[in-house]
């Protein structure tokens, strides 16, 4: 959540990263700070942009030379004389661009290795600080909150940010949606009218809880799930119905077709 890194296991990878021969995770300049890591990341990003720019310049120069090569038999002597100077400049530029790119790539590789070592040192130190702080109970949720931001921010800032997103329950969203659907089913007197009743029930709720907001947004999928459950299983008991509706709702809402998306947007409440 704190980076565009593609790996979902960045925290684990950082903590368990093996060190290369001769590499140390303790920088000679002292323990890394979040600010120092942030500055290093910024330099690394600038190097990546420079490499991209040099690569793009190489591509454009090669395209120019290829175009010249294709039309070479069609050029007159005067045209050859006119373009030869530009071709020479492009060839020299290609060599210089290649040299600059290789220099940037080597510098980026060295900086990336140093940053990885600093990340590992910082993350391991933050884990120890968290365990020794005694400010939070050592349960899976508190550990996850403290570790979520590593190695990009410290454990205190990570725990503070994650607390804002806590729903106040350890139940998963799917189960919380099931509970809302079960409440709707149990409060509906006439099950054949359950589809319309679910819509009016959701509209009367003042709660801004995540499952209710989702069911309002995905009313189309809820309506179709209720209809499917009642149509395919007319003899299903009231106790069983919420399970069937929830299963159908999760299946259809998580794998919508292009048509579903069009109609779902129209039925949002």
- Largest sheet descriptor: none
The helix content is over 70%
Whole-number total of structural domains:
2
User: What spatial form do the alpha-carbon principal axes imply?
Assistant: flat
Number of strands: 0
What order do the helices and strands follow? Answer: HHHHHHHHHHH
SS field, number of helical segments:
11
- What fraction of residues sit in β-strands? under 5%
Could you tell me how far the N terminus lies from the C terminus, measured between alpha carbons in angstroms? 30 Å
Secondary structure class reads mainly alpha
Rounded Rg: 30 Å
Unreliable parts: 1-6
Mean pLDDT: 84
Features:
single chain, 269 residues, mainly alpha, 11 helices
Mind explaining what this structure looks like?
The chain has two domains: 10-165; 173-266, no CATH class. By secondary structure, it is mostly helical. 71% of the residues lie in helices and 0% in strands. It has eleven helices and no strands. Helix 4 packs across helix 5, helix 6 packs across helix 8 and helix 7 runs antiparallel to helix 9 (219-232).
């Amino acid at each position: 959540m704190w980076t565009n890194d593609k790996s979902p296991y960045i925290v684990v990878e950082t903590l368990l990263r093996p060190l290369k021969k001769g590499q140390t995770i303790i920088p000679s300049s002292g323990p890394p700070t979040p600010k120092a890591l942030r500055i290093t990341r910024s330099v690394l990003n600038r190097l990546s942009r420079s490499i991209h720019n040099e690569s793009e310049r190489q591509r454009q120069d090669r395209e120019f030379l290829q175009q010249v090569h294709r039309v070479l038999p069609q050029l007159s002597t005067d045209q050859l004389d006119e373009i030869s100077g530009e071709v020479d400049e492009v060839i020299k530029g290609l060599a210089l661009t290649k040299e600059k790119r290789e220099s940037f790539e080597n510098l980026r590789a060295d900086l990336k290795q140093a940053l990885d070592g600093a990340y590992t040192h910082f993350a391991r130190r933050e884990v120890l600080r968290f365990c020794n702080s005694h400010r939070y109970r050592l349960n899976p949720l508190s550990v996850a909150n403290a570790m979520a931001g590593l190695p990009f921010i410290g454990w205190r800032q990570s725990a503070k940010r994650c607390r804002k997103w806590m729903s106040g329950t350890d139940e998963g969203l799917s189960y919380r949606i099931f509970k809302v659907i079960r409440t709707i089913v149990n409060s509906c007197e006439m099950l054949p009218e359950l589809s319309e009743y679910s819509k009016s029930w959701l509209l009367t709720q003042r709660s801004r809880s995540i499952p209710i907001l989702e069911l309002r947004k995905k009313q189309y999928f809820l309506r179709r799930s209720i209809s499917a459950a009642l149509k395919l299983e007319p003899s299903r008991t009231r106790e069983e119905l919420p399970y069937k509706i929830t299963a159908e709702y999760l299946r259809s809402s998580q794998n919508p077709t292009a048509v579903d998306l069009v109609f779902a947007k129209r039925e949002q409440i």
